[in-house]
Design goal:
Strand content: under 5%
Radius of gyration: 18 Å
Number of domains: 1
Largest sheet: none
Length: 232
């Protein structure tokens, strides 16, 4: 039901620069700034690292690739179609209901420890940015350019394979060696990535998938960190 969006209109040279930005962020610096660790330098905590990476990616797209962020799907609410607004509100509400049921125990622990609400809010902000950063790099940069070059089918599958098995989630291979059943993590990652890829492809709206991803990261990972604070 999403309205058809016009094709991306930036130049081939700008597209190459998008791919170079992706390689720099994910392949060289690393999604967790692993390059600093390899060089023997301290890696900043997520509170600094994640916003820094996100701001760097935005700046590189705007000033190195010279592409307007709106071309990648970051446009104002006033430009959202009725279908986009309706879909976003419905899924936002339903996702929070479902996640609240799934993680009710963690939410009860958080509710009973009001002193941790400030920490929980900070962790939520970081997780939201982290989810948004992942969508910006893998859907906004990589998928957009690969779809422009190779078409929707190939572009989506290649970008989602890199999202699942590339630098972002490569650390899961260590867990697979210890617990083969951990392979299911890759299956789940690929499935949710394909969902985000299709929503982004059909809607052209990066806000939708970025916020949804951030909410999921908060419930799945962020709440666990808050509970861990209680155990200390």
């Amino acid at each position: 039901m999403f309205d058809d969006k016009p094709p991306r209109t930036y130049s081939s040279g700008a597209g190459i620069r998008l791919l170079l930005i992706f390689v720099l962020l994910e392949g060289i610096l690393g999604p967790r700034l692993s390059l600093l660790g390899w060089l023997g330098l301290p890696v900043p905590g997520g509170w600094i690292r994640i916003p820094l990476l996100f701001l760097l990616s935005l700046g590189l797209v705007r000033f190195f690739a010279k592409i307007e962020l709106s071309q990648l799907g970051l446009y104002s609410w006033a430009r959202w179609t009725t279908a986009e607004r309706s879909y976003f509100v419905q899924v936002f509400l339903l996702a929070n209901i479902v996640f609240s049921v799934l993680f009710i125990r963690r939410l009860e622990i958080l509710w009973s420890h009001q002193a941790l609400w400030g920490d929980a809010l900070s962790i939520f902000a970081v997780e939201l940015i982290w989810g948004f950063y992942q969508e910006f790099t893998y859907r906004g940069l990589l998928q957009t350019e690969l779809v422009r070059r190779w078409g929707a089918m190939v572009g989506i599958w290649v970008s989602n394979l890199l999202y699942t098995f590339g630098p972002l989630h490569f650390y899961h291979f260590q867990s697979v060696r210890e617990r083969p059943a951990h392979l299911l993590v890759f299956a789940a990652t690929f499935a949710i990535g394909l969902f985000f890829a299709m929503v982004y492809r059909r809607s052209g709206n990066l806000w939708i998938v970025g916020i949804f991803h951030g909410i999921g990261d908060w419930y799945v990972g962020g709440l666990g960190r808050v509970v861990a604070l209680v155990a200390r």
